[in-house]
Write a structure and sequence with these properties.
The protein is an alpha+beta fold. The protein is 31% helix and 20% strand. The protein folds into four domains: 194 residues, Roll (Ubiquitin-like (UB roll)), CATH 3.10.20; 55 residues, Uridine Diphospho-n-acetylenolpyruvylglucosamine Reductase, domain 2; 114 residues, 2-Layer Sandwich (Uridine Diphospho-n-acetylenolpyruvylglucosamine Reductase, domain 3), CATH 3.30.465.10; 112 residues, CO dehydrogenase flavoprotein, C-terminal domain (Enolase-like, domain 1), CATH 3.30.390. It is built from 17 helices and 20 strands. A hairpin with a 2-residue loop joins strand 12 and strand 13. The longest helix has 20 residues. The structure holds flavin-adenine dinucleotide (FAD) and FE2/S2 (inorganic) cluster (2 copies). The site of flavin-adenine dinucleotide has 31 residues, from strand 8, helix 9, helix 12, helix 13 and strand 16.
């Protein structure tokens, strides 16, 4: 069951396998949602997806509510979201933002500020801006700032108008006079309809004998995986959706984790942060903002808001890309993966998880259930680096994480962990460089020397994002950069 612009739809059979954008355009004739790239890169297909916040949920604590029961709306790219992921979600497309047949305040502002020329990107911008107004606590009275808009619109590309007019339009919207989605579509009746479906697992089949399982519990998810070891596991579909749209995969059996509540959320106990594998990057970002600001900063450059609103930490780990942005951080902190199987769960140090390109220690009847991250202590210094061809919405060319602990006098390296991404088939630790540095003085000349050793430990390739030589140079230079960041932060 899904709601679209306030109306209930019971989707079954082959329709459940469609992308949301295809369903909106081809089944409902709602062609306001545009398709340009079909791979999450342009935001033309943005729609709002609302889900009921669980009891006690921090995100639900707005508008005078105590958390839980409120529908939280977030912009996502509908071209890489499948209908089967949207059970018990309320979709609001650009058509649904109108009130009494009149343009919404954001649409009106786009007209008045000349924010649209060919208009192809415009519905995506309008929906994403509506989402930005939605995102803050409902009592928001201040207009969006240019910086908030620039950050919030990194996932929306415009090829002809230019961004000045679009930012002007966003800034000119008066939040006090803008109806929130919950005013257009009151939460109560929709949440009530969803509530009656809370604990139900769903299986959908189509005529071609494709199957989708939407379990409600981790145990059911694992049981389906054990019975269908070749099934395709789908969490946020930001990787799977792209592969599907490029024709690289056509899954027969699908295990969708969207409704497994046990795999979502964060818990901070002492120095240990536990994150459910199905937790979106947006929620992780908020949970770690104060606890690990360095990781927060990297996440602000992870894809776009639309990607972070859908993509999950478990998907990033299991996608096993050597340039996955979270993995170097997880390596140096010594994160453990909790892997759930039919006979219970086991824990694996992520440093031992990968053993080749896209090869890792996950049995065919297992799922990644949770990630346990020991947070850096006060005695440790953590720095994370992402090098990409463009700052925003770009895949990394090279990534690095360095975690160091100096002796009490601050002169000698007691312990150092270094992880690099983009310089081999998997994210790499640098054991020779770490051993060389341990016990040495924390000095520029030592870090420069270590950089040469680091260069010899990596095996990069040349691809569209950079040459092997460039990556080797980065592998060498980043340790000097690390020294200056720690020892002379004002010099960088
Ligand atoms: C436009 C765009 C920009 C992006 N930018 C970045 C970026 O800056 N940095 C970056 O690192 N990545 C980026 N990505 C990649 C992607 O968003 C991330 O890897 C994301 O975390 C994947 O999560 P997901 O839930 O969407 O995974 P899905 O697509 O659902 O799944 C990915 C893989 O993980 C498997 N899987 C998912 N969950 C589990 C589980 N619990 N147990 C076992 N297997 C599982 C799936 O079977 C699949 O093989 C980008 C992608 C796009 C489309
Ligand atoms: S069409 Fe470009 S992100 Fe969906
Ligand atoms: S108005 Fe033409 S792409 Fe933005």
């Amino acid at each position: 069951m899904v709601y679209i612009n306030g109306e209930r739809h019971d989707v079954s059979g082959a329709d459940a396998f469609l992308t949301l954008s295809d369903f909106l355009r081809h089944r409902l004739g709602q062609v306001g949602t545009k398709i340009v790239c079909s791979e999450g890169d342009c935001g033309a297909c943005s729609v709002l997806v609302g889900r009921v916040s669980p009891p006690g949920d921090e995100e639900g604590k707005s508008g005078g509510q105590s958390g839980g029961g409120k529908i939280i709306y977030r912009a996502i790219d509908s071209c890489i979201q499948f209908m089967y992921q949207l059970d018990r979600a309320h979709i609001v497309s650009v058509e649904g933002l109108k009130r009494n047949g009149l343009l919404s305040p954001v649409q009106d502002a786009m007209v008045k500020c000349h924010g649209s020329q060919c208009g192809f990107c415009t519905p995506g911008f309008v929906v994403t801006m509506a989402g930005l107004l939605e995102d803050e606590a409902a009592e928001r009275k201040q207009a969006l700032t240019p910086d908030e808009l620039r950050y919030g619109l990194t996932g929306n590309l415009c090829r002809c108008t230019g961004y000045v007019q679009i930012i002007d339009a966003g800034c000119s919207v008066d939040p006090g006079k803008t109806a929130r989605v919950s005013e257009l579509y009151p939460d109560g009746p929709i949440a009530e309809a969803f509530g009656s479906h809370t604990a139900e697992s769903v299986v959908v089949k189509d005529d071609g004998e494709r199957t989708i399982a939407l379990p409600a519990t981790l145990a059911e998810a694992v049981a389906f995986k054990a019975a269908h070891p070749d099934c395709t596991v789908v969490a946020g579909a930001t990787d799977i959706g792209v592969q599907h749209n490029k024709g690289k995969i056509a899954p027969k059996d699908i295990l969708c984790l969207a409704n497994v509540a046990e795999m979502k959320g964060n818990e901070l106990t002492g120095e240990m942060l536990t994150i459910g594998a199905g937790t979106t990057w947006t929620r992780v970002e908020r949970a770690i903002k104060d606890a690990v600001p360095q990781f927060y900063n990297v996440l602000t450059l992870f894809g776009s808001p639309q990607i972070r609103n859908a993509g999950t930490i478990g998907g990033n780990i299991a996608n096993a890309s050597p340039i996955a942005d979270s993995v170097p951080f997880l390596f140096v902190t010594g994160a453990e993966l909790e892997l759930a199987g039919p006979k219970g769960s086991r824990r694996v140090d992520i440093n031992n998880f990968y053993f080749g390109y896209k090869k890792f220690d996950l049995r065919e009847d297992e799922l990644i259930a949770r990630v346990h991250i020991p947070l850096p202590t006060e005695a440790q210094t953590l720095k994370l680096y992402k090098v990409s061809r463009r700052r925003d919405l770009d895949i990394s060319t090279f990534t690095a994480a360095v975690l160091v602990e100096l002796d009490e006098a601050g002169g000698t390296i007691q312990n150092i962990r270094i992880a690099y991404g983009g310089v081999g088939p998997v994210v790499l630790r640098l054991p020779k460089t770490e051993t060389f540095l341990t016990g040495k003085p924390f000095e520029e000349s030592v870090l420069r020397e270590a950089g040469k050793l680091a260069r010899s430990e990596v095996t990069p390739i040349t691809d569209v994002r950079g040459s092997a030589g460039f990556r080797q140079q980065l592998a060498e230079n980043i340790l000097s950069r690390f020294y200056f960041d720690c020892a002379q932060p004002e010099a960088v």
